[in-house]
Amino acid sequence: MPYNIQPGVIGCAIEPSISGVRRSLEEIIYDIAQAALADARLTIDDIDGIVVAGNDQYDGRAISIMAASGSVGGVDRDILSTPSASEHAFVLGALRVATGQFRTQLVVAWSPTEAHSLAEVQRLAADPYYHRRLPLDELSSHALQAAALGHAATDADELALSVIAKNRAQGAHAYPDLCTVTANTDAIRASRPIRWPLREAMVAPAVSGAVAMVLAGADFVAERRSEAPAWIRGMGWATEASFLGDRDLSRAPGLEAAAAQAYAEAGLTDPAGAVDLAEVADDTPYQELLAYEALRFCPRGQWGRRMAEGTFARGGRLPVNLSGGAQTLNPVYCTGLIRIAEVANQVRGRAGRHQQPNARSGIAHGASGFAMQYNTVAVLSRMPTGALS
Amino acid sequence: MTSPRVGIIGIGQSAFRSRRDDASYPDLVREAVALAMRDANVEFDDLEAVVYSLSPDAMVGIGNAERLGVDAVGARNKRFLRINTGGATGISSVAAAYYHIASGACDIVLTAGADKVGECGDSQTVLNKIWDPTYERQLPLGTINMLAMSGVRYMHHYGMTEEDMARVVVKNRRHAALNPNAHLRKETTIEEVMASRYISWPIKLFDCCPQSSGGGAMVLASEKYIRERKLDAVWITGVGHCSETYYLGDRMGTGFTADHADAFALRNAFTRAYRMAGITNPREQVDVAELYSPFSNTEFHAIDAAGLAEVGRSPAMLREGYFQIGGKTPVCPSGGTLCTNAIAVTAMMRIAEAALQVWGRAGGHQVKGARVGIANGNGGDHQFFGAMVVEA
């Protein structure tokens, strides 16, 4: 581990699906920040710095961090913002703790869905000369990725249905009051095509959500005798090229690079054998398949066999997306940070209904942008050093 | 545990103009990156991470426009993230790059960005969208009338006059005339400033920064990396950020956290940076300052907040020549934000210019013997403040 001070996660709060109009965005952000602080048994006075992530276009504001800064306790505090991705706020918060110059960080991200059309908002992020007029939105880019993978791996289309069934069954167990999507393969096959090869029931509808995490350094944890944190044993983050035409969408080299960074820091050579669970990007089931390979859980030639064995399902050797993932609840912009918070909760033994028994370590993967342009990987463990489990 | 020292080893500034029709948005970023990498004598393969500096997407008309800059900064399959704290983005990005290295995660990091403010149509229309859609957006607030209100309060509290504001413009334009990278380089007079039309009282046209298009980049490295390769560098010795309230109404009247005349969070940001750098008496220890002042009146409360003057004394000290090149502590020897403002990188250029000064590489606007420099950036509705100390 290269860090000056080891950072860990000592508090989490996740609202993976917010319905109704009883709270303003500022109130939602305030509530989630306070809930994470309460989970860490801290108050805002204990927080040295804040990193937030919001998307101007989804929020309908320029510099959306401005309105949020009061809600997260930012007045008279050091606050930065990473609009590139919610998971990047975690990265920067962890780096700040790792300097030893900050003892704690509050990390917050949110994702409203009040925009008239999320697809139109996303289209504005396409380059204005070529891609914008296709028109390209994130779902279209994910569909191109799915088509490319389906062409390169002939069993991917069939396995994708199995991924959906697995994640939604797990999601129905994890969040029974919030889960509204079907896990029935026949119903999924029969749903209308939206972007070939994706059908309507192959993606979860966008929902509003919010997530917050409290990070602290080893010195603070020792001083406050915080409950066992989810120690950050390794972190990696990487981007792919902007133009889809410059990428082989049937592969995920950016994720491979991010995983290589994180695993090198954590000293991981056999990630699938070393950790107890994982949460990975799954806006489409094809993304989870790509993650199996790029995270070195198993090569594409073994996807079918491992899934048939139940390796990645609840009760299997390496359960993936016990929370149900974005296949169950997809608060678009903050989905990546939620993946990390879910793993942190598992490692801390605070995952609730979907807690993996004796979970001591896990891998989180968040992705953002067209066809997973940005990828972030975090290795979390109940053990600060030594073996992960 | 002491975190690793972080040095600046390369700086790139593109040409800043009202329009850069010759360069696309990624081209502008690349222009600055190429200059910084040449200055640092490094290749893309050397870089471990990139921090992308971009304030509101709306200014370039592309959502998450940093994605289009990935190849321009050579970040493919590398660590990459974007920072946005409005006008403070540039200094926040340098701070984020600093944290990459000070944490121990990386040894060499590029931070870069660009803006096309001059080609956005009207920056105030965009910037109106930073405010609350229900209450303040409809006034309509812009950054000019927001800071005009600050100017009025500064006049009320400390006796600043419009002529004092004009003196800031005259000083900074004189400095910019010496800086080939500045956008507005034509010298002016108090009479000319006073005769320019009102934009929002007491701010007149010549009291305003230009809308600039251009890019900026810096390469930062760990002390270990610098020593092993025997590189030339200057050092970031102090970093601090602090924020104010969002609602302007919370900065007026009595009993509130702070007064809109002042910049209390900027003062606190400098306090943090000074504490880290061991600066206890900035008036004696700081040789040069690049303070973020997009409108002439705001330079006064920035000087106050940086501790270079007792609060409210800066207009008088300016009249006495304290803050011009050749004075006790030159402020904005580059001409500052008042003469060049490509928002996404403006605050980065404040640090870059302070670094060039303590490096002894500032050319025609060099402050003789400068060893300790300070810089800051302001963003949002005068809400986010970053401060930094650089030393030879």
Provide a brief overview of the structure.
The complex is a heterodimer of chains A (389) and B (392). Chain A has 389 residues and is of the alpha/beta class. Chain A has helices spanning 25-39, 56-59, 65-71, 86-98, 118-123, 138-152, 156-174, 185-190, 218-224, 253-266, 271-274, 285-294, 303-309, 325-328, 335-347, and strands at residues 7-18, 49-53, 78-81, 104-111, 193-195, 198-199, 208-217, 230-239, 277-279, 361-368, 374-381.
Would you write up a description of this structure?
The complex is a heterodimer of chains A (389) and B (392). In chain A, helix 1 (25-39) crosses helix 3, helix 4 (86-98) crosses helix 15 and helix 6 (138-152) crosses helix 12 (285-294). Chain A has 15 helices and 11 strands. The radius of gyration of chain A is 19 Å and the shape is globular. In chain A, strand 10 and strand 11 form a beta hairpin. With 389 residues, chain A is of the alpha/beta class. Chain A has a 9-stranded mixed β-sheet, sandwiched between helices. In chain A, strands 5-6 form a two-stranded antiparallel ribbon. Chain B has 392 residues and is an alpha/beta fold. Chain B has 12 helices and 11 strands. Chain B has helices at residues 25-40, 89-102, 123-127, 143-158, 162-176, 190-195, 223-228, 264-277, 282-285, 296-305, 314-319, 343-359, and strands at residues 6-13, 49-53, 79-83, 108-116, 198-200, 203-204, 213-222, 234-243, 288-290, 372-379, 384-391. In chain B, strand 10 and strand 11 (384-391) form a beta hairpin. In chain B, helix 2 packs across helix 12. Classes of the chains: A alpha/beta (389), B alpha/beta (392). At the A-B interface, helix 3, strand 3, helix 4, strand 8 and helix 10 of A face strand 3, helix 2, strand 8 and helix 8 of B.
